[in-house]
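Saturday, quiet lab. Running sequence design on the structure tokens for the scaffold JK sent over.
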């Protein structure tokens, strides 16, 4: 029984929330015991649960640095010709590849990755990445609308399916107004700035 609870808790923490509901873990544990440790059946119990689909569980998990970097590459449709610089970026963000000595591996909980220094590091990576300053990465320039509002709306849909708070939306527009207007008149440059700010936004940090 203790093994059933331990594994069910690990799965619920990974896929639902850092502090999963006790009732969900209990049902998963019961399935584990009933199905002789069949993980597929345990996951079916989790995926069919109301807790998994609740509003409280939606984007409740924070991306690890690896998830953040990989989702940035995927979201921007970047071509990776040399992955070594990305590996160095992961080290800067506190998650070097194969760098965790204990067999338990890196934590997937937010408290391991969310602090002011870590979030600043993510923003610095996002801005450098979108500006093409990370070697070995090529990002095709966006030829979007000339209007800042329209360009932001387009990139919001691309990177976060439009799921950006009004506060984040307004903050990015304010930052765009502070960008050197000569450079910002270049549509490609403005798109880079917007991409960087979106990648560094609170919403993009969530799974």
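Result came back. Writing it out in full:
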């Amino acid at each position: 029984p203790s093994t059933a609870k331990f594994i069910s808790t690990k799965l619920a923490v990974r896929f639902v929330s850092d502090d999963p509901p006790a009732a969900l873990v209990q049902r998963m544990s019961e399935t584990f015991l009933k199905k002789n440790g069949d993980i597929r059946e345990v996951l079916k119990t989790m995926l069919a649960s109301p807790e998994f689909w609740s509003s409280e569980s939606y984007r409740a998990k924070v991306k690890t640095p690896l998830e953040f970097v990989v989702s940035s590459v995927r979201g921007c449709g970047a071509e990776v010709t040399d992955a070594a610089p990305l590996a160095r970026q992961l080290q800067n963000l506190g998650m070097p590849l194969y760098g965790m000595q204990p067999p338990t591996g890196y934590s997937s909980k937010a408290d391991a990755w969310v602090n002011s220094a870590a979030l600043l590091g993510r923003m610095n990576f996002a801005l450098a990445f979108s500006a093409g300053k990370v070697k070995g990465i090529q990002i095709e320039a966006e030829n979007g609308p000339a209007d800042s509002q329209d360009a932001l709306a387009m990139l919001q849909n691309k990177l976060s399916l439009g799921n950006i708070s009004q506060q984040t939306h307004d903050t990015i527009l304010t930052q765009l107004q502070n960008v050197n207007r000569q450079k910002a008149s270049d549509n490609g440059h403005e798109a880079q700035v917007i991409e960087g700010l979106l990648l560094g936004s609170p919403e993009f940090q969530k799974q």
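Notes for JK: The chain has ten helices and two strands. The CA atoms of residues 131 and 192 lie 6 Å apart. Ask whether to fix the surface positions before the next round.
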